[in-house]
């Protein structure tokens, strides 16, 4: 019997150390909720997770950009609806001012209302959204994905001649009212086109926003498969490693006690 080298104790200690390490890893995963508590657990998985997290952040940022652009479009359309109501009333005034039973004095009242509505339209043309002009006609490039691709969102120009001609019109006489009606009708036609443009822009971005939302969900699910711990599986392993550590501790104590039996031979 050899007493200088206790192989049973060495083997038991090695097994106990391995079981203890496994138990600590299981405990760390369960307490953190992550399968990758430190890089050594899954270097490749960690690298892929970092990439996925970056893509998720970029996708969510692009979705935020799209949502903000939709808000801008909704604001544009809200103003354009009111401009449409003003133009409708201006066209009514232009027709009423052509009534041969009206005097120019009465038409001056129509002109007062007409010019007030025209001023409203002119003022609306200066409105902005978070410092960005709503109606200067500029095309806005909306980022639509994590790669920086953009959608060129056509602008709306309330300073276009169709609008300025209408707002500069005059219904103070029956003759000028005829010309005013033509100008306002042209402005209404332009408004219809502009609102259709806003609607098309909004529809396009709504599809993009839905697409980005689905992509973000899928990327998050993929990252979850890499990093999120399976509690049921890991709890089972934790219980297994606990048993191994306890039995390993007991067996190591037994292995350390075995050399004491040599003393009986020397007695």
Question: Keywords for this structure?
Answer:
about 270 residues; mainly alpha; 2 domains; two-stranded antiparallel sheet; 4 strands; rod-shaped
CA-based shape? rod-shaped
The N- to C-terminal Cα distance equals: 15 Å
Strand content: under 5%
CATH class categorisation of the largest domain: Mainly Alpha
How many separate helices? 7
Structural class from helices and strands? mainly alpha
CATH architecture of the largest domain: Up-down Bundle
- Give helix and strand order, one letter per element, not per position: HHHEEEEHHHH
Q: What fraction, in percent, of the residue positions are helical?
A: over 70%
Major sheet? 2 strands, antiparallel
Give the number of domains. Answer: 2
Q: What is the multimeric organization of the chains shown?
A: single chain
* CATH H-level superfamily title of the largest domain: f41 fragment of flagellin, N-terminal domain
Rg estimate, integer Å:
39 Å
Explain briefly what this protein structure is.
This protein has 267 residues and is mostly helical. It is built from 7 helices and 4 strands, in the order αααββββαααα.
